[in-house]
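Please fill in the sequence for the structure shown.

STRUCTURE ENCODING:
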């Protein structure tokens, strides 16, 4: 079996569902269930004995050691993290705790477990760390896309904490020989994404008739990847990646934020004929230190592991919009008092 951390979050829950559907191999899912973790995402596998959910913190050494001893996983996939840039600007502490200290403690527990394995199991073991393209910093308009050798230049507390965790993972390979794999991925979108991130926030606000807040001039560029393509890529890296290597994962879909917002509005208008969602677009004060452009060169993973995205942006965004339209209860259930407080904190004063 394998063990995933953060498997009740956006990418993690998509990964768990896809993993069980594609492989049937048992998976232990350790998640702290912060505001971003949601067991509703996993309700379709609630009766599946191949999925073992454990609520807990990656920094809880005793719990992790006990889980490793009990389940003897052949691999760990580390997705647990604080993941939202704006939250890292308002309060970096949780990012340092989970993304840096948590990853460190997890690595320590895993190193102790792995060191005691039989030689064959030691050789076959993998620790796959899921990271982000944000560690590479920001690109100018005409600069080439990030390759795996691009220098680290993180600009937000979030990306700095992820960069730090990447360095620790790398060091555990070089120093202790732990068979690690690191993936650096671009912006994901798809089902179960918490509506603090651009695409689900725009969908939720548009459906509620609220302003669609575009930071700054809206011309910042992100490289969009459908979440299931990301899950497939991680499975492939786990299966065939070379320990110690990093793999960039991206969708070859560079788009300006305002283009994304317009596309979301156009698609929603298709499903709600006669509506005009674009009138809700509101330019607001920019994010401090806002990275201008990210772009992933995903040639290495295609060349060496034969992975490339199956979805285009057109097919992926349509599936995404349809999922949110078909799941109004999910959107309503995540919009708790804590969610409303976050919106006030982040958006009041930006107008
Ligand atoms: P998310 O915020 O939706 O989910 C994170 C999950 O981690 C939640 O379920 C949360 O409860 C859990 N968690 C947080 N702290 C924990 C802790 N201390 N111990 C155990 N569990 C904890 O995030 P996501 O968007 O699904 O991202 C998953 C991973 O992928 C993160 O490492 C993120 O940095 C990385 N990533 C995300 C994107 C993206 O576009 N969303 C792109 C590239 C990389
Ligand atoms: O690049 C990968 C990263 O993508 C991941 O590592 C992060 O976990 C993930 O959150 C995402 O980071 P971004 O900051 O790019 O995503 P976000 O959805 O927050 O914002 C996308 C762009 O949209 C960004 O340029 C900021 C802008 N934006 C965002 C929000 C929430 C707005 O203009 N308005 C908004 O209200």
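FILLED IN BY: designer on duty
SEQUENCE:
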């Amino acid at each position: 079996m394998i063990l995933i951390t953060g498997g009740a979050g956006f990418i993690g829950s998509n990964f768990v569902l896809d993993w069980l559907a594609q492989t049937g191999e048992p998976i232990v899912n350790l998640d702290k269930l912060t505001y971003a973790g949601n067991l509703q995402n996993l309700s379709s596998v609630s009766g599946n004995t191949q999925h073992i959910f454990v609520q807990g913190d990656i920094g809880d050494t005793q719990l992790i050691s006990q889980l490793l001893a009990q389940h003897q996983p052949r691999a760990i996939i580390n997705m647990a993290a604080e993941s939202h840039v704006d939250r890292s600007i308002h309060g970096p502490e949780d990012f340092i705790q989970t993304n840096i200290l948590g990853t460190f403690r997890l690595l320590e527990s895993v190193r102790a477990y792995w060191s005691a394995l039989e030689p064959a199991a030691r050789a076959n073991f993998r620790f796959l760390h899921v990271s982000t393209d944000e560690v590479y910093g920001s690109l100018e308009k005409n600069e080439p896309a990030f390759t795996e050798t691009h220098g680290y230049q993180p600009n937000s507390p979030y990306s700095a904490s992820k960069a730090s965790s990447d360095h620790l993972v790398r060091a555990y390979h070089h120093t202790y020989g732990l068979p690690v794999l690191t993936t650096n991925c671009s912006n994901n979108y798809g089902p179960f994404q918490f509506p603090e991130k651009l695409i689900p926030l725009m969908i939720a606000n548009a459906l509620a008739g609220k302003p669609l807040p575009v930071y700054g001039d809206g011309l910042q560029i992100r490289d969009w990847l459908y979440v299931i393509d990301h899950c497939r890529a991680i499975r492939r890296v786990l299966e065939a990646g070379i320990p110690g290597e990093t793999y960039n994962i991206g969708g070859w879909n560079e788009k300006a934020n305002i283009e994304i917002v317009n596309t979301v509005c156009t698609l929603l208008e298709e499903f709600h004929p006669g509506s005009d969602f674009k009138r809700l677009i509101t330019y607001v004060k920019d994010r401090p230190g806002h990275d201008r452009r990210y772009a992933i060169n995903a040639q290495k993973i295609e060349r060496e592991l034969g992975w490339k995205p199956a979805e285009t942006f057109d097919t992926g965004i349509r599936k995404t919009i349809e999922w949110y339209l078909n799941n109004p209860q999910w959107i309503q259930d995540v919009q708790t008092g804590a969610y409303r407080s976050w919106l006030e904190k982040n958006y009041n004063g930006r107008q």
